[in-house]
Amino acid sequence: MMSMAANDEAADIQAIAGRGFGSLTGACYLLLRIQDRALAKPWLRSVDIASVAQARTQRLSQVCQMAFTAAGLRALGTEVTPGAGFDPQFIDGMAGDERRSHQLGDEGPNSPAHWHWGVGEQEPHILLVLLAANTSINSLAKDTCSAAVAAGCAVIGGNTPTTTTTPLGREPFGFADGVSQPEYDWSGTLTPGGARDRDYRNLLAMGELLLGYPNEYGFVNDYPAADELGRNGSYLVYRQLAQDVAGFWQWLARQAGDDDGAIALAERMVGRGLDGAPLLGLQSATITGTDDARNAFLFADDADGLVCPIGAHIRRVNPRSADDPQGRHGFVRNLISTLGFSGTAMHDAVASARFHRLSRRGRPYGPVVAPHAAMQGTGAGAGAGQESGLHFLCLNTNIARQFEFVQGAWVANAKFAGLAAEQDPLLGNRLPLAGAQPTDAFSYTDSGAWPRAIGGLPQFVTVRGGAYFFMPGLRGVARLLADG
Ligand code: HEM
After folding, report:
1. Which of 104, 180, 294 to mutate to test the pocket of ligand 1 (most atoms within 8 A of CB)?
2. Residue 324 clears pLDDT 90, i.e. is over it
3. What average pLDDT is seen over the chain?
4. Which residue of 239, 314, 315, 365 sits with most ligand 1 atoms within 8 Å of its CB, as the best mutation to test the pocket?
5. How sure is the predictor about 448, in pLDDT bands with cuts at 50, 70 and 90?
6. Are 189 and 183 in contact (CB under 8 A)?
7. What does the pLDDT average to over 225-251?
8. How far is the CA of 295 from the centre of ligand 1 (A)?
9. GO terms for CC (predicted)?
10. How many Cβ atoms from other residues are within 10 Å of residue 190's Cβ?
11. Of 88-102, 103-117, 322-336, which gets the smallest average pLDDT?
12. What does DSSP assign to residue 198?
């Protein structure tokens, strides 16, 4: 495979595929609907989209990235069919049908019927990701917004852009965020696929991030290959997730009886310390593709979840080697049977965590309230009454195998890994299953080595909106915006 360092490729790939731009602490996720295609296309062509090559050689003071929903491609006059190579999930959309909503946990208060954006007239066509310094994001957003409106686009949610300047590095519950990220094989050293290539590693084939390259199975996913439309593109999943920070900490304090106990329990629910450190007692391990000590661990030596609960957030969304297809633990067999895969664990690589990684690019929003202040019901200050949450954005190439699998089979699934009655402790909607079976439990082992199970977890996170976007390479963008 040609090395991804090659400049012509790097000049084609949108910059956020390569990095998160943590130094640009202001962000705006501008959601647009095209009302007049003839006006919109020339303006969109004039938008300067930063590439990986630029980000490698220049210190960018602002970054703009562009992605399209299936409805947006149609509004631009592009035919969006599986025959053209588009991902079927992308074509259907995140809120495309009830079965998908059920699978993703988008029911009850999470239901698309309650979303602030994502369906009907509030379904976006285009996402512009704007990143800049805290001091300049508002003016960049305002100017871009006025230009969009002048070019026949409507800004979803009114014509006032919503920006976030919430400090990065911590999500609103107060935990370090952005700690574990997959690395991608930009220099072309991996030969993925094959029966012997099964170990957990953090270095992944380019085809897990970008369309047109071999993936972890060793082959190239279907993608819109004609006219270079899809090569170097990716699918961007965006979910706006509101977090009930006061509700979270006050519930934990009531459960635990005191502040320290609340923090210890929250750390078990996340699966990391507040500062991002692995839970004490996990054995360290050498993992290809990471040199960060905070990520040098596996769950293989903690098969029963005595240190990191089986249902903890980070263990669900990335079970690492705990579902090693050659594993010898009960968890493996439970997971595979839970997911409905038949055959022996030895020969089934499908459940391996490496095939379900996401490159996260989200940002927090809203006022920052420290855990102790949230427990006391104080601390929001000037931001009191304002919502906090996460603009959860991630990149992947196969929405069903990556985002939907993680969200549906691991986060929202009450029977994950042989557990009963518990969804992700942070993200679950807690709705009972058919037959009234509860999903609101969390089980863990406490510091005295006692197994504990708590019931009645409230819903802490509510979906406010979401959509699947196609984020083409720069040549793909030019192709989509050509003519007219
Ligand atoms: C408001 C919602 C959420 C909160 C508060 C949250 C919080 C966290 C925290 C504190 C971590 C550990 C630090 C880190 O590795 O960055 C983490 C990791 C992670 N989260 Fe979430 N998260 C949320 C939503 C989601 C969603 C919707 C997904 C995917 C469907 C997801 C996927 C991940 C992944 C893949 C990791 C890295 C796990 C690893 O490789 O160890 N998160 N999250």
Report:
1. 180
2. no
3. 91
4. 314
5. confident
6. no
7. 96
8. 14
9. cytosol
10. 20
11. 322-336
12. -
Lowest mean pLDDT across 191-195, 329-333, 372-376: 329-333
Residue 385 has pLDDT above 90, yes or no: no
Distance from Cα 31 to the centre of ligand 1, integer Å: 24
CA 181 / ligand 1 centre spacing (Å): 10
Residue 159 Cα, ligand 1 centroid: separation in angstroms? 31
Maximum CA extent, the chain: 69
Please give the distance, rounded to the nearest whole angstrom, from the Cα atom of residue 428 to the centre of ligand 1. 13
> Whose C-alpha lies nearest to ligand 1, atom 25?
392
Residue 335 alpha carbon to ligand 1 centre in Å: 20
Give percent above pLDDT 70 in the chain: 91
Task: Report how far apart, in Å, the C-alpha atoms of 103 and of each of 4, 283, 391, 408 are.
Answer: 35, 34, 21, 5
Q: Which two tokens stand for residue 154?
A: 């409507």
Across 157-183, b (16+ Cβ under 10 Å) vs e yields: eeeebbbbbbebebbbbbbbbbbbbbb
State which ligand 1 atom lies nearest to the alpha carbon of 358: 35
**Ligand 1 cavity residues, CB under 6 Å:** 171, 173, 175-180, 241, 243, 270, 272, 276, 313-314, 317-318, 358, 390, 392, 406-407, 411, 426-427, 461
Domain boundaries, the chain: 7-167+217-239+466-481, 259-465
pLDDT in the model for residue 197? 66
pLDDT in tens, 353-368: 889 999 999 999 999 9
CA of 122 to the centre of ligand 1 (A): 27
Residue 6 has a pLDDT of 65
Residue whose tokens read 């990065």:
168
376 Cβ contact list (under 8 Å, min separation 6): none
Backbone φ and ψ of 350, nearest 5°: -60, -35
Q: How many other CB atoms sit within 10 Å of the CB of residue 483?
A: 8
Q: Which residue has the higher pLDDT, 7 or 170?
A: 170
- Asked if 51 contacts 144 with a C-beta cutoff of 8 angstroms, the reply is no
**Exposed e or buried b per residue across 308-325, where buried means at least 16 C-beta atoms within 10 angstroms of its C-beta:** bbbbbbbbbbbbbbbbbb
Task: Over range 369-376, report the average pLDDT.
Answer: 94
Q: Average pLDDT of 223-247?
A: 96
Ligand 1 atom closest to the Cα of residue 406 is 30
pLDDT value of position 1: 45
| C-alpha to C-alpha distance for 47 and 66, rounded to whole angstroms | 9
Beta bridge partners of 7: none
Lowest mean pLDDT among 244-258, 323-337, 368-382: 323-337
pLDDT of 231 reads: 96
